[in-house]
Amino acid sequence: MTFDHRARREALRAALAERGLEALLVTDLANVRYLSGFTGSNGGLLIDARGEEQSRIATDGRYTTQVAEQSPDLVVLNARGVATALTAFAARQKTRRLGIESHIVTLQQHRALVAAAGQAADQVAFAAPELVPIAGVVELLRVVKDPHEVEALRKAAEIGDKALAALLAKGGVRAGRTELEVARDLESLMLDFGSEGPSFETIVAAGPNSAMPHHRPTEAVLAAGDFVKIDFGAMWLGYHSDMTRTYVLGEPADWQREVYELVLAAQAAGREALKPGVELKSVDAAARDIIDAAGHKDHFDHGLGHAVGLDIHESPALSKLSEGLVPVGSVLTVEPGVYLPGKGGVRIEDTLVVGESENLLLTLTDKALTILEP
């Protein structure tokens, strides 16, 4: 699968010109990958609004061959300190206004960039560039996914669906097993089906632990009567999937059926409300209002969802505080939950591509209440 990194850089140049910036120093590794295809652990980009020939990618000697293969259309600077090397290069190019990713650059790094810019500017007898803090300019470009990105996300979700189905088919979620054993098995199965790795630390939360939204798996033993909440994702070409399903070991109690059906109804309402051009917060409200009306206002204390892509959590988010409208072509999760401390909790999560007329559901595992043999 081929991604058009050059077109992405051209779109960024236009965005920089609109903001009165001559160049942008890109140090967030997901943004580096999005703009260049480079996947090394040490890399940075200088994207110059004046043209591709002034732009550079920087990495160290460990990645010389890799960067040449992954980013053949960019000139490489060999440096361990990629940010300072690129800043110095920008200064020697007589850049006046250099944007920096202010949500990534620390105060200590900023001081190093100022020093590097000043020293390089002295070499060409020109004023050092103004370092302009700017956050989210690349991330804004990443909101709308192109068809290749959607296919990568679909493939990642397919891997997750297959892995969970295989885990259930072999009785991997049953009484007597630990949360950690279930999580490890699921991650291993994702690898078997082609995942590059888990999108995040797999959540397996059983019994009272399922009442914690982001519980980390422990040696806690699954038991009959437990809710078992599984939140996980696979990666394909760097793109993440994200899905949550909640199961019951053995015949559910009345309260478990009630909570499950409530969350299922809220999730359906959230998915139905997810349409292009509607307010982000209204999607959250569609699901949240159902949970609030059932008396569980205090038991759903996180946002309804978030965008997914090269990062597992991207913008925009779906929450009661979100501003803006749902973009067509964005990929978002819908994941309401109800969590009852000391008893258990349910979360049901899907990932969807927002379409002009209808959304594309990526996570296809059945959401009906599923009772597993204890």
From TrEMBL:
Stored PROSITE patterns: PROLINE_PEPTIDASE
Short name of one Pfam family: Creatinase_N
Annotated family: Belongs to the peptidase M24B family.
Name under which the protein is recorded: Uncharacterized protein
Domain Peptidase M24: start-end pairs: 151-356
Originating organism: Segniliparus rugosus (strain ATCC BAA-974 / DSM 45345 / CCUG 50838 / CIP 108380 / JCM 13579 / CDC 945)
GO MF annotations, alphabetized: hydrolase activity; metal ion binding
TM ranges: none
Domain Creatinase N-terminal per the UniProt entry, residue ranges: 8-144
Gene3D superfamilies from the UniProt entry: Creatinase/methionine aminopeptidase superfamily (3.90.230.10), Creatinase/prolidase N-terminal domain (3.40.350.10)
InterPro entries, sorted: Creatin/AminoP/Spt16_N, Creatinase/aminopeptidase-like, Creatinase_N, Pept_M24, Peptidase_M24B, Peptidase_M24B_aminopep-P_CS
Iron as UniProt keyword: no
Lineage, top ranks: Bacteria, Bacillati, Actinomycetota, Actinomycetes, Mycobacteriales
Keywords: Hydrolase, Metal-binding
